[in-house]
Amino acid sequence: MTIYDIAREAGVSASTVSRVINDKPGVNPRTRERIRALLEEHRYVPNEAARGLVTQSSRLVGVLVADIRNQHHIEGAYYIAQELAKLGYCALVLNTGGSDEERAAGIRMLETRKVEAAVLMGSIFQTEAVRDAIACSLPEAPVFMLNGEMDLPNVYSVLSDDRAGTADCVAYLAERGRKRVAFLVDQPTPSSHLKQLGYEDGAARAGMAQLVIDGVEGSVEGGYAAAKALLAQQPDVDGLICSLDIIACGAMRAIADSDRRVPQDVAVIGTDNSVYCDICTPRLTSLNTMVFESGVAIAHKLVDCLEGRSTNRKTMLFTGIVEREST
Amino acid sequence: MTIYDIAREAGVSASTVSRVINDKPGVNPRTRERIRALLEEHRYVPNEAARGLVTQSSRLVGVLVADIRNQHHIEGAYYIAQELAKLGYCALVLNTGGSDEERAAGIRMLETRKVEAAVLMGSIFQTEAVRDAIACSLPEAPVFMLNGEMDLPNVYSVLSDDRAGTADCVAYLAERGRKRVAFLVDQPTPSSHLKQLGYEDGAARAGMAQLVIDGVEGSVEGGYAAAKALLAQQPDVDGLICSLDIIACGAMRAIADSDRRVPQDVAVIGTDNSVYCDICTPRLTSLNTMVFESGVAIAHKLVDCLEGRSTNRKTMLFTGIVEREST
DNA sequence: CTCCGTATTGCAATCGATTGCAATATCAAG
DNA sequence: CTTGATATTGCAATCGATTGCAATACGGAG
Predict the structure, then answer these.
(1) SS percent in chain B: helix, strand, coil, step 5
(2) Tens-place pLDDT, residues A228-258
(3) Chain B residues with beta carbon closer than 8 angstroms to that of A98
(4) Cβ neighbours for A305, distance < 8 A, ≥ 6 positions apart
(5) A71-127: per-residue pLDDT in tens?
(6) Among all residues of chain A, which has the CA nearest to that of B114?
(7) Model's pTM, two decimal places?
(8) Any chain B CB within 8 A of the CB of A199?
(9) Closest approach of chain A CAs to the CA of B70, in angstroms?
């Protein structure tokens, strides 16, 4: 069912039908009603591809998510999709794998689909290859980065101050009398690197020795194994900060298995404030890195851009420690 | 950069360029190479909208996800997207809200984007309104339902036998000497209803009195509150089956707060086998309802359909209890 | 009854591809 | 130097919309 079919049946030209569909003036009210009825009757839906071809617009926004394990990113992506849908835009949510190639391919895919804007969920997109791909494929479209920055005029940033936040975690434990606070960090990503820097800042400021275990696998088992080894080697550890909540969950289990209590013997803090915090026992104190709130902020700024309003290129959200039972 | 730009620069017609792009025969090898080089040099990417208009294909598959809280559905959706990407298809992942209207609107959106197939993640799509929307908007395209069936020739189903699985859970507890097993169920959905029927089957078969608490909020707090109330009223409960793992997590906390031990005093089983199972303490025994595996199966069957191979309209996956510490 | 302004409507080009068929080029054989 | 077969290439229509401009219809004033 195309506008030509409708036009034939209504005894008018396609132009007139198009004017009715797009609520444009210059159509006799009676004709308009007649066509409206036909449109309704045949449940006409426009072909977005054809429409986009002539209007040079797709009403599509690309959302790239790298880590599907990150509940926050996914929820953020869906929130963005929802907000956009309200405005008649459609989110093209793509998951890109772990490599730079795949991420660049994702951006090229957005180009062939002619998206009008893009969102990159996560600091993992902050690489040279992605920068080049954006400069090549989306030099005009507004691109929003979550937790990342890029020196391109069309790239906007929404980030949370994870470095300061993690430093705050160290200070928080130091104030509560912890003397030896270790840091468990997963595979290096820009985000985990920031957290590590924050840990180092905090430890230096508190005059505390630094103890970093890196390369921890991002799973309950990974956290368990790392914490078990740590406690065996450094039995005097009385505080633990983890770059992922899920690692903290595994670590707490290891602590319990080593006949220590959380938080009395070892206090534990995660840095995601994820749903896991309320599920594990004891409930996990965690740094709210505002990932979800960032998604909300991105959706709003994106819509501002798309509707021609201006927005500042960088938005910083402040973190906060959410105290639960593990400290 | 369009094929016309390339054609002009190469001194040939657009047809020739198109033949090169699509690897079609009938082009002088030397010309072909020259055009290939130009394509590369200008990083030509085809406009999918224009291509789709003439070929009447979009290489787009719509994936509708209703409940973003369901980690399985999201992972499944991403897995599907990944498989499709390998074959040159692009997944249009849409989240539809809670109402029938929104779900029907999602299907209509798929129609305007001219998707070649659709996937509905979850039993929640098994409604009359969705059926009508499919019959209207996607009467030809293959539609895959996860955990749902529909009497339309183009709707395929991949489901897990949750009813039998939940009955197995009751039997499992009965065999281990539990006398009074209750069932906590969330807001009614086709899926939770099946689980409830399974519980009733199992209880009847084991000659056990039935004790169903329904309308439980699907959260840790919801499970906590429901279990707390239950234990106060029915102190003799020694087994608990929950329609959602997250409810089971809350329930285990309530049991601990009521000075009972899991599993010694009350055994608990969830019915999602989600990531939460390994995070809570004690680790939660749960029914693997194969949601993730179903996603995999759907991806494969979808690709079969798209490539012209035939598949059976209904695939049943069998559930299994994954034993952990809560039983 | 003519003329003019305004309200409707349609024509035709355009967007960026694909593709059947006609046209031209190339080359070897006779 | 034809002729015919085959290899390249281009023309033009098509997909389903949108839109500027030209054309027609209508109505009232003179």
Answers:
(1) 50, 15, 35
(2) 999 999 999 999 999 999 999 999 999 999 9
(3) none
(4) A117, A142, A156, A311
(5) 788 888 888 888 888 888 899 988 887 789 999 999 999 999 999 999 999 899 999
(6) A47
(7) 0.88
(8) no
(9) 10
